[in-house]
Write a structure and sequence with these properties.
5-stranded antiparallel β-sheet; elongated
């Protein structure tokens, strides 16, 4: 996937504003981890600051260990009350192969320098959450649920057949 930066689309249509796919090294999706960084600008809602942030995201995607880097803005999904401003200005999501890659990334001087020079000047604050990614095959999950339900029905039917009949039933 080629790097995207500075993509301007109406806010109601935006899910992903900038992204970059890393080197494409093979990885096991079951060990994948993500770093979610939520940004609060010094100048909330400022389009110039958002453009600077979006221009920096592909640079994070080129750091060692990063598989993908994407950014987005808040979307009014109806959870906030009328007239309420979004609670944050932007989010960056970095995908890494595993926890070791994440540890190496956050300790790397390149990551810290990039964050400090490109992003920190724009920010009043930021929050970081590192998460594992639980993946499952939806088809297998459905089949398992049907199997459990079918087994439960069989067990209930067998139990009903083995129970002594009550008079009048």
């Amino acid at each position: 996937m080629k790097c995207l930066a500075g993509l301007l689309v109406p806010a109601s249509l935006v899910l992903m504003l900038a992204g970059c796919r890393g080197s494409g090294a093979a990885f096991d999706p079951s060990t994948e981890v993500r770093q979610h960084v939520t940004f609060y600008f010094k100048r909330p809602g400022n389009d110039d600051d958002r453009a600077k942030l979006l221009a920096a995201v592909p640079k994070f995607g080129r750091l060692p260990g990063v598989i993908e880097a994407v950014a987005g803005r808040p979307i009014a999904a109806g959870r906030a009350g009328p007239g309420e401003a979004p609670a944050f200005d932007a989010v960056m999501l970095l995908t890494l192969a595993d926890e070791g890659a994440l540890r190496a990334l956050v300790q790397s001087p390149e990551y810290r320098a990039l964050f400090d020079t490109e992003l920190r000047p724009l920010l009043a604050r930021f929050d970081v959450a590192d998460t594992s990614t639980e993946r499952y095959d939806v088809g297998q999950a459905f089949e398992k649920a049907v199997e459990i339900d079918t087994k439960g029905r069989r067990e209930r039917a067998t139990k009903a057949m083995l129970e002594p009949r009550r008079p009048g039933s």
